[in-house]
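Hi everyone,

Forwarding the result from last night's run.
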Amino acid sequence: MGLLGAFFVSFAVVVNGFHVPHANIKRQVSQLRSSYDFVIVGGGTSGLTVADRLTEAFPSKNVLVVEYGDVKQFTPGTFDPPTTWANPLHPEYAPFFVFFPIPSPDVKNKTGFVGAGQTVGGSSATNGQFFDRGSRYDYDSWAEAAGPGYEAWNWRGLFPYFKKSVTFHPPSAALVQKHGYTWDISAYGGSTPIHASFPPFQWEDREILWNTWKDLGLKPSRECAAGEKEGICFVPTSQHPVTAKRSHAGLAHYADVVASRPNYDLLVRHQGIRVIYPNGLQSGPPTVEVKSLLDSHVFNITATAEVVLAAGSLHTPTILQRSGIGPAGFLQSAGIPVVLDLPGVGSNLHDHSGPFAVTWNYTNPGNFSEIPERMDTDPAYLADSIAGFSENPARGPYTLGLANTAIYVSLPKLAPNHQAIVNRIRQIANDGSASSYLPAEYRTNPDMIRGYKAQLLAIANKLANPKAPSLETPWATGTSLQAFLLHPLSRGTVRLNLNDHLAQPILDYRTGSNPVDFDIHLAHVKFLRQLVNTPTMQQYGAVEVAPGPGVQSDADLVEFIKDQMTVSFQHPSGTAALLPKNKGGVVGPGLKVHDTAGLRVVDMSILSVNIGGHLSSTAYAVGEKAAAIIIEEWTVTGKGKGKAKAKARR
């Protein structure tokens, strides 16, 4: 596997300490209050964002966060000492769930690896720290797929919360001179202690590909986080600008604020089992049933205002399924009484995937001294790199993470046959044949078919747009590149394990089940293969190794793509989609679960259509917007206290 493959397929992690008042951390039922106003199940990126905002806005209301994991003393960054570039994992600090989806027959039964954060801070404490946003067209597609009433979830509706959710630190003039960094400060403007910055270090051979992309007609973008995202991008890293340590929700939305919040409790090492409506779905907020992972004790927690599910795309749907909220047929097969037939729960699973598209060698590699291999061959260089990371400010290779540059290319700019691909998507959506690519249990469900059609048409419109990226390829160094399929058409499922409902769920990615995905993969690979023939690459004597001269026909390239496929780039989404109920949706525009009272979902499971980027910054923005919605509702109804503060935060 290539170096960037290790980055995006792993959940690496680095030393960063929590300084948490232990009185707020709860580990057993006897430490809890008799009831809470708000109960949030999931102490990850979005959940902690909501908890922070609610405890600040309503100081007289109590908030409990229930988290499966624990507070970790260490939350290692993507690439921190003592790892080397070729081995970027910190297994001793690995607070994440590991899933192996069932084999996908359309990609030669590949299964892959999927991870999710299992610690306070969730995946923001374990991810690759690639802190980009999607383009405006990604978020506009949410509103487009959902239809009337969902307009607030377009780019214009989310952009203020992107700005609010992060503090961007511009680089120094010296770094700008050295690395050419560009940005637009108007894309930012928040004061939240989620830090984003550009690293002080770059590998010297990064410039080879930068110039190669320009040879291929791509243009550097001044800022790729302001809605337009086409071309060559600098991407911020979620790390502190001075220490280069990971910045994540467990710090910024818990440890750094909880000392002054007597109304904020955190229950760790407990699994959210289900929600219970003893008096019917409209009776108010449900009770939350949880299980201690320390002694297996099961008990209920009472919420008087709302329950917020923020357990992520892979666990939120299973909590709902255990609650009897989900596809009736599956619930019956699992022996769970049906409380609400909501077929979208655990459906619509999709993720970014893609192959190692091209690998090459240099016959005239140039004279670069700052390259990753030196960490393995020069002990003095490695020692200095480790020492540099501990300095203040930090310096050297370990401040880089693994990458902060990428290309984002639209289908019209990379594929001569782009219109034929778009037309094919529209045709299968409109003639109904696309339903045959859905999981079997949904092929005759009119709501699921209607929702899938809406998603496909929204994706087709994006793929036809020369400003909306279809391909992402990140890089920092090296001689191999991956091709991220940003808008997959294939859909899978997340289901309870029928043998043990409390075990980790079963993921069926169904990668490549919609064959048009391979048309797009093929276009991506053909575009990236051109790089070895550019003037810049020829200057270094580049020779393609893979796919190789023997792989030329489309049929052979598709086989190569299947052989090289990475099933997941760790961005699962869509399993509790933000869509109307008659389109297979799970939550409405206020993120309330359809046909229920006092129950919302606030995590990446709401994404009906995945974005053209990594999910962390979007998870923060969704959390911020959700908190604003909740605060507004409870303030307007007169049920909230601390109203002046609530209004000041919006």
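Residues 421 and 519 are 7 Å apart (CA to CA).

Cheers,
N.
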